Description:
Blueprint: H1 4-7, H2 10-17, H3 38-56, H4 66-80, H5 82-94, H6 99-107, H7 110-114, H8 121-136, H9 151-164, H10 168-185, H11 190-221, H12 227-231, H13 235-244, H14 249-257, H15 260-266, H16 273-283, H17 285-305, H18 309-312, H19 326-339, H20 354-362, H21 371-388, H22 393-404, H23 407-411, E1 415-420, E2 440-444, H24 450-461, E3 469-476, H25 480-483, E4 490-496, H26 508-511, H27 516-519, E5 522-527
Parallel strand pairs: 1-2, 1-3
Antiparallel strand pairs: 3-5, 4-5
Pathway: Glycolipid biosynthesis; glycosylphosphatidylinositol-anchor biosynthesis
Transmembrane segments: 63-84, 99-116, 168-185, 197-219, 275-295, 375-400
Subcellular location: Endoplasmic reticulum membrane
Amino acid sequence: xxxxxxxxxxxxxxxxxxxxxxxxxxxxxxxxxxxxxxxxxxxxxxxxxxxxxxxxxxxxxxxxxxxxxxxxxxxxxxxxxxxxxxxxxxxxxxxxxxxxxxxxxxxxxxxxxxxxxxxxxxxxxxxxxxxxxxxxxxxxxxxxxxxxxxxxxxxxxxxxxxxxxxxxxxxxxxxxxxxxxxxxxxxxxxxxxxxxxxxxxxxxxxxxxxxxxxxxxxxxxxxxxxxxxxxxxxxxxxxxxxxxxxxxxxxxxxxxxxxxxxxxxxxxxxxxxxxxxxxxxxxxxxxxxxxxxxxxxxxxxxxxxxxxxxxxxxxxxxxxxxxxxxxxxxxxxxxxxxxxxxxxxxxxxxxxxxxxxxxxxxxxxxxxxxxxxxxxxxxxxxxxxxxxxxxxxxxxxxxxxxxxxxxxxxxxxxxxxxxxxxxxxxxxxxxxxxxxxxxxxxxxxxxxxxxxxxxxxxxxxxxxxxxxxxxxxxxxxxxxxxxxxxxxxxxxxxxxxxxxxxxxxxxxxxxxxxxxxxxxxxxxxxxxxxx
Length: 531
């Protein structure tokens, strides 16, 4: 889906825990720490520690391989995704939605099936947002809102979400205001109100201290391996190191992302991209229905303000039952508006919003008459993003891992050069190469121009100092023709199907030709150095 599903958690932990050759993204370098290490440790780190322990105990002789490295963190995230189902089931009665219809709508969404089963920090952000909504939404037996009693948990989850992704504050704003409103309306006295807020602040501060301490330890040592040397130091030395450089990763994150020049390096988009493109891409007709309902409620609210009752037919203002509960719309559109303030806008940033959108869409059966559209949309979405989009890259890495670790390669060590061009950045960890191994080189050419690509390939072909070298070029079928212009020959072509590169999309006429599979495939080309 996106390089960040590997490079914000599994890739880093594979290097630290399994001692594999990996690519550390800039956010995890000690010179620019912008990501907390706590959540990667609790997710990918735990799964990798388990498979490492199983192999060390001889319970599984080959537990560490590309398949387990890929699947084990995803399996854990899939288990975590049921927190979303639990939250919808708990929240649906509170927001006057049918629990089972809401669960069906949630489970049938390709966002749930694809994004929430991948190792994205956005998926964790969505789960924490769901738990926060559960904590602030409780009812008494008579159906009236109950006084909040979970102030410590609210503080812990809000702070944890902030350290996971500082954008979590945009999602948490409305739930926190709703929670504060319930406390003030409970009329229990000023002491009770202060008590609630003190509990929240104290637990938030304690959670922040835990995250800051863990991150400072990690980035000061720069990796888990180096933590052992810190453990051997005296307590005073450790405290001295922490005091010298206290690392607060969310502040570094905000400092970087609030600079428009930095965001431009990752891609700039119009401010309306989330509203007009990404929301529809992720949620389809549900996003359009929410926009329509929002405009209707806004119109009625304005009509009440200017007191044109004859025109509004006596509407009761913003909180109109005929249009549903507006709080859910605020839970959806307020984070959307805040995220739209930034020029870098990717669809995955919005995946936490599936919870309020599902609840709103099933509260008065808004989605029922559109069920056929919803089914077709999510089937196509799952096919596009779950199968086709960059679909050949991971199978390619699994194939190359078997190649470089084959018995033939073990008996006769060779030097392998793996050159990736016009693909997403390949996660090195899936090649399962130990840090001490130097016979495998990975070159990421990204979207290099044809001239640059040819120059690099020719240099490798003419490197006569290495007699037993194997050079492989990995390139999508849509740009396969450009590599033939480089004046080199290839052997042992392997086509991995399917693979769709949106950066180099196939031409429509080719899809209806006899060569259509090559347009939707990823090639592994071995350079024929003898020629």
